[in-house]
């Protein structure tokens, strides 16, 4: 019995010493190597695995709603929505089979990405649509390109954009096509977006624009507005802001359309099999003109009738950004203008009075939305650029604000870029 007790004590001493050394080493390693810490939920897992979704994107079961309801319930509130079956009325839904695309549009040129997992650092290749159709089912390629004029003529403008001012703000329409299993980077668009799925399935992961600062805080590419995190394997140690990031989930079936508000971050994953989609980008509408919808509720027409020339797109985007702080007001007063432009842009009362007088075309001491949408943006840029949003004054290279004054001390309000002030550059581009 004594020998047995001695043996037990001896073995205990050995294991105890070994455990002590192991614990000490483990403790040291934890301090020296953070990778040994317990991994957060979703670490090195696909985007969205870190926590359950806040919920599903709202769905409208009967297709598109009236433009007024679209504006009031979703655009004004910056709220995503899926319109079930809305794309079934588009010509491409039933007619754009591969053989038809090859026969009708086969000679049209498109840009093609190599790699169905998006990598924006890689160059793109240009090929005819016929060439792409011959390759896409067996090669790791993805077509992304503006709809050419001949295709625009065959695609109807989504009815939610028929009136109220939407139809004047269209930027471009893009064709997306692959054999499935594509994954986009986590990014945001600087335009409103309606994406209609003509074939296949898509899953969309969305993050509210209110988390913009967190998403821009690490490894963010400003040119293109996207994060470099790996959407298939999110490193939660490298991107700690993602550990508790709220997100929403949207699921699209063939024939569905989704509205993604400007500024909302999203990553789009397509299911297996042929995937074909069209999206329309348009500037943010700040005021819905109800009289514009009179006798136009059944108005139809191809997208080509509405798309702006490239030199008309930038002004509408700038108009939206300048006047967005006033959205929700029926009329803009001088006090409103001082509150916004005086506090945000540090513009003098005299300068605000100048631009207010310019915008108040009927001299009634109020600026109406009709006057805002009638104002010449080119004139605003050339004479009153100091009311541009603060981000226009950001020196992107030095990450600091810069203003410019003339010899009299008046603001020109442009930040310098390649020896030109930004307002001057925008004015020249127009």
Quick rundown:
The chain has 430 residues and is α+β, with helices and mostly antiparallel strands. The chain has 13 helices and 22 strands.
What report would you give on this structure?
The strands form 6 sheets. The chain has a 9-stranded mixed beta sheet with strand order 2-3-14-9-16-7-6-4-5. A 5-stranded mixed beta sheet has the order 1-13-10-15-8, with no helix packed on it. Strands 11-12 form a two-stranded antiparallel sheet. The protein starts with a helix and ends with a helix. It has helices spanning 2-32, 67-75, 91-95, 98-105, 129-135, 149-152, 212-215, 310-323, 334-345, 349-359, 369-374, 377-383, 422-429; strands at 55-56, 59-60, 81-83, 109-114, 125-128, 141-146, 170-180, 187-188, 192-199, 202-207, 220-221, 226-227, 248-252, 257-260, 265-270, 272-282, 331-332, 367-368, 394-395, 400-401, 416-417, 420-421. It has 2 domains: 55-308, Cupin (Jelly Rolls); 318-429, Recoverin, domain 1 (Orthogonal Bundle). A hairpin with a 2-residue loop joins strand 21 and strand 22. It is 29% helix and 21% strand.
Name the helicity range. Answer: 25-40%
DSSP summary, beta strand count: 22
What fraction of residues sit in β-strands? 15-25%
Q: Estimate nothing, just give the exact number of structural domains.
A: 2
**Low-confidence parts:** 1-35, 395-430
Termini, distance in Å? Answer: 99 Å
Main sheet makeup? 9 strands, mixed
Total of DSSP H or I helical runs spanning 4+ residues = 13
Q: Please give the order of strands in the largest beta sheet.
A: 2-3-14-9-16-7-6-4-5
- Please tell me what the overall shape is: globular
CATH superfamily of the largest domain: Cupin
What's the overall average pLDDT, rounded? 83
Radius of gyration: 27 Å
What structural class results from the helix and strand content? alpha+beta
Kindly identify the CATH topology of the largest domain.
Answer: Jelly Rolls
Known CATH architecture of the largest domain? Sandwich
User: What is the CATH C-level name of the largest domain?
Assistant: Mainly Beta
